[in-house]
Amino acid sequence: MLSKSAARAFFLGGTAIVSLTFIGLTVDTLSQVPARSHESEMTEAVKRGHEIWNDNNCMGCHTLLGEGAYYAPELTKVVSRRGEQWIRVFIKDPEAMYPGRRKMVKYDFSEEQISDLIAFFSWIERIDTNGFPPEPDLVAGEGGSPQAHRPATAKKVGSDALAGAPESFKNLCVACHRLGGTGGNVGPALDGVGARYDEKTLDQWLADPPAVKPGTKMPKLPLTDAQRGNIVRFLLKQQPAK
After folding, report:
1. Which of the listed CATH numbers 2.60.120.620, 3.90.700.10, 1.10.760.10, 3.40.30.10 matches domain 38-134?
2. What is the pTM assigned to this prediction?
């Protein structure tokens, strides 16, 4: 059994060691922050985007770096998941892409404000978060049932399968669909799609997905007739490998 003086010494010594360890770890953490957060790349656009994020209480619905509400999707890696152009189109009018379903507010942001938000999301994405958020093991299928081993994050666009693809396809469609191993896994892969659907059906799908299949997760994209035609012609060329 310790004497009073020994117990005091043990307490004071232990407190000192723990305190010094805590201070050391704090100093080490703070010293890593500039590099891990790429502080030098915090542009004026990033700062303005952060102000827009705060002023509109986006964390009231979304999470960022794990902080915020869990009503709407986590946005730490949103640029990789969806791509800049998809984000830009969605923010302009969320409900237009998902008529009668989306509850996100239409904020009527200017093009510059949307660009600032995207710059902010891109900066957030490059922060070293030790692997957060992790890739999901499961994502919901069209009918709501999970499909195993389908990571939802899109791969970087750059596959030979996309050679000759319209810009609107590369900017919007691959945010959800995969072609030649490149793109997202939210929607079905488009390999060989030209053999499964005719020109009229593909055009109808692109023009108004909910009208073709009520309840579909595919958004109604703001495509012009010319853009839609270019995508349809490209998809018709996607035939099964012989």
Report:
1. 1.10.760.10
2. 0.71
